[in-house]
Every structure is written in structure tokens, then in C-alpha cells.
């Protein structure tokens, strides 16, 4: 018989759901702000106008992978 040890619960806690929602809202706000930056500001952060447009166009659920790790 095989036993599987699970060190963390399989369900997401309420606090984690709230934190995730706040993360997604923050990401949406950051992407809107990125889309409004002028060329000088974009140059300062090292991205092109087309890269900024592409990032701003991504859906809110398309978050960086490292954001998902703290939820489980």
C-alpha cells in the first residue's frame, strides 16, 4: 500500500483567495499604468512601446508564475 503525505491542505484558504484577488487587481492596475507611460518613462525602465502594449493587453489571470506559489 502506498501512502502519500501532503504537507499543505489541498484547498485554498479564504485568506489566500482574498490575497489572490488583491494581487490580480494590483496587476490590472499596473498594466493600465504601464499602457499610459510616455516613451521617456518606458526608456527609463528598459522596454519598448510594443512590449508595453503587449504586456498591457495580457488578461488579468495571466499572472507571473511566482505569484501562484504562495497560494498552495
Give an overview in words:
- The protein is mainly alpha-helical and 72 residues long.
- It is 54% helix and 0% strand.
- It contains three helices and no strands.
- The two termini are 26 Å apart.
**Helix share of residues?**
40-55%
**Structural class estimated from helices and strands:** mainly alpha
Number of strands: 0
Average pLDDT number:
80
End-to-end Cα distance, whole Å, is 26 Å
Tell me the major beta sheet: none
Low-confidence stretches: none
Radius of gyration: 18 Å
Strand content: under 5%
The tally of helices reads 3
Order of SSEs, N→C? HHH
Overall body shape: elongated
Helix-strand layout with pairing:
Blueprint: H1 14-36, H2 39-45, H3 49-57
Helix pairs in contact: 1-3
In short:
Helix content is 54%, strand content 0%. It is built from three helices and no strands. It has helices at residues 14-36, 39-45, 49-57.
Features of this protein?
72 residues; mainly alpha
Amino acid at each position: 500500500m502506498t501512502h502519500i503525505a501532503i504537507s499543505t491542505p489541498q484547498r485554498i484558504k479564504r485568506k489566500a483567495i482574498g490575497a489572490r484577488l488583491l494581487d490580480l487587481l494590483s496587476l490590472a492596475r499596473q498594466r493600465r499604468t504601464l499602457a499610459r507611460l510616455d516613451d521617456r518613462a518606458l526608456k527609463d525602465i528598459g522596454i519598448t512601446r510594443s512590449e508595453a502594449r503587449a504586456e498591457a493587453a495580457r488578461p488579468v489571470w495571466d499572472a507571473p508564475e511566482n505569484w501562484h506559489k504562495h497560494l498552495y
